[in-house]
Write a structure and sequence with these properties.
Blueprint (H helix, E strand, L loop, with lengths): L2 H7 L7 E5 L2 E4 L4 E5 L6 E2 L10 E6 L2 E6 L6 E3 L2 E3 L1 E3 L5 E4 L2 E7 L2 H7 L11
Length: about 120
């Protein structure tokens, strides 16, 4: 693979693409971002309702694609259960009861989203 091909397949740090979780912005800088309960994931949730390897966000052909990894509680985008879904800026992703917003190059939407995602439960 040539250097130009490598650049085309890797997300640019200048794209301002991130997940907003509990008012925290997580930049998507890798080709594959893994989400789950297992400590080796890129985004880790310490909630029993989340599977160990719950889902992945992959950068494919210039788009971000969400994949559910056969999770127990399922993965939802805009309240619809998905196995695979191309993400659009502003999409609301649910991993069990945890709400996450996908934002792609939209500073105004990021500001709104900071107040949209719900706090993580603290009860046991």
């Amino acid at each position: 693979m040539g250097e130009e091909e490598e650049k085309a397949e890797t997300p640019s740090r200048e794209q301002n693409v991130f997940l907003i979780i509990n008012r925290q912005m997580i930049p998507l800088e890798k080709k594959v971002t893994r989400v789950g309960r297992q400590l080796g994931n890129d985004v880790v949730f310490h909630e029993e309702a989340i599977s160990r390897f719950h889902a992945e966000v992959r950068y494919e052909d210039g788009k971000y694609v969400l994949y559910d990894n056969n999770s127990t509680a399922g993965t939802y985008v805009n309240s619809k259960r998905v196995e695979r879904c191309v993400l659009n800026s502003g999409d609301l992703i649910s991993f069990s009861f945890i709400q996450v917003m996908f934002v792609n190059n939209n500073a105004r939407l990021a500001g709104i989203a900071m107040g949209t995602t719900q706090n993580l439960r603290t009860e046991k």
